[in-house]
Amino acid sequence: MSGGDLEGAFEELGEFSVKPGTGMPIVDFTHRDEVNQCFGKMAKPPNWHVDKKYSNGRRWVRGKKRDEVLIASIGKEQDGKVWLHVSYSRPHRMPSYEDLLQIKKHWIGEMSKAIMVFPPKEFHVSIHEYCLHLWCCLDEDPLPEFSWGEGRI
After folding, report:
1. How distant, in Å, are the alpha carbons of 5, 82, 104, 124 from that of 112?
2. Do residues 4 and 107 make contact, with C-beta atoms less than 8 angstroms apart?
3. Contact 111/7 with Cβ under 8 angstroms?
4. Among candidates 37, 45, 85, which has minimal Cα distance to 61?
5. Structural domain boundaries enclosing 48
6. 8 Å CB contact between 60 and 36
7. In this prediction, what percent of the chain has a pLDDT beyond 70?
8. Overall number of domains in the chain
9. Residue 144 covered by a domain
10. Predicted TM-score of the model (pTM)
11. Does 111 fall in a domain?
12. Buried b vs exposed e over 84-120: b needs ≥16 C-beta within 10 Å?
């Protein structure tokens, strides 16, 4: 696998057991080497370091004060599909478009589709003033081809 492309990175996971009421997979990174290696297969840019492991993902930090934070996790969502969720925050400003392009390149891959969701107001939750989120379906591409076959939007 080249770069951060996810094709095949999670194939070894197979079916997940899901925590009741959460939709999150029960994955133990300390005992499932194949799962542990999935995040390792995604090439990361220099200066990012894992500072915390979760049962379903990792938290990376960058900067002298470790103030740039990225959390990547996988989970089976309400549609029954397995999704990669990447959240990225900066300390004093909203991430830029260029920031998101780099995050997508290194954590999701240039050949995979990522989406950013703008939910209805009643479903919007913000726990960090300067954080944005990307999602990538690992099972299939759930979106239509919006370019109508012309290869550009």
Report:
1. 7, 14, 9, 25
2. yes
3. yes
4. 45
5. 11-137
6. no
7. 71
8. 1
9. no
10. 0.72
11. yes
12. bbbbbbbeeeebeeeebeebbbbbbbeebebeeeeee
